[in-house]
Amino acid sequence: MTVAVRVIPCLDVRGGRVVKGVNFKNLHDAGDPVELAARYGVEGADELTFLDISASTEQRGTLLSIVRRTAEEVFIPLTVGGGVRSVDDVSALLAAGADKVSINTSAVRRPELITEIADTFGNQVITLSLDARRAPGDTQTESGFEVTTHGGKQGTHIDAVQWCERAVELGAGEILINSMDADGTKDGFDTEMIQAIRSRVSVPLIASGGAGKAEHFVDAVRAGANAALAASVFHYGDLTIREVKAVMYTAGIEVRL
Known about the structure:
- This protein is an alpha/beta fold and 257 residues long.
- 35% of the residues lie in helices and 27% in strands.
- It is built from ten helices and twelve strands.
- The protein has an eight-stranded parallel β-barrel with strand order 1-4-5-6-7-10-11-12, surrounded by seven helices.
- The longest helix is centred in the first third of the chain and has 11 residues, at 33-43.
- The radius of gyration is 17 Å and the shape is globular.
- Mean pLDDT is 89; it is low at 21-26.
């Protein structure tokens, strides 16, 4: 049986509000996270991703109260990330209603955290959140892509594709590919990055960054993604989840209608 491709709205939260910008900068208010989550649940989202984008920079934990309120309103899988540094943090998020957690900065800093979480909860709970960009001129990586941390603010000189391989070996069950270069541009997902990572790992991949029209979701799947995530096009009504799924279905992609 073919597994249906997932369409996932993303709620980037700062200061208790959903925000969205371009290339991780110039953030603008996009609404209340609980209200948006409830709307997407009704509209047919397959999952929701909730990212507390300032938690790592501000060196604090994820806003559990918002996670709890969101989980009470929405009855589809919820992935939560931002400020997750320990098994105890994961336990708290799962208790608050999350189904999966995503980790980025903390995993780069201490990769064994991936194994600790996988051993405790199972690797189906762990999504590696990869904030990656094309490596700048002073940074050489084999794949041409570099891992960043702290919400895209800090370069690492770590090859993004190699890091994905290592994370899967350590226990990551899924990878969320956030393209910094494409983020908010509406020019399409970074299919080159998706293809590069797909060629090296077998776990599910979620494409993120760059969605501007429904056909972009088709492109991401054909590049190797198992799911596609978007924020601003859904928040501001440029696209609906139903529209995206209809185009994907017409293109021969299995989706939940």
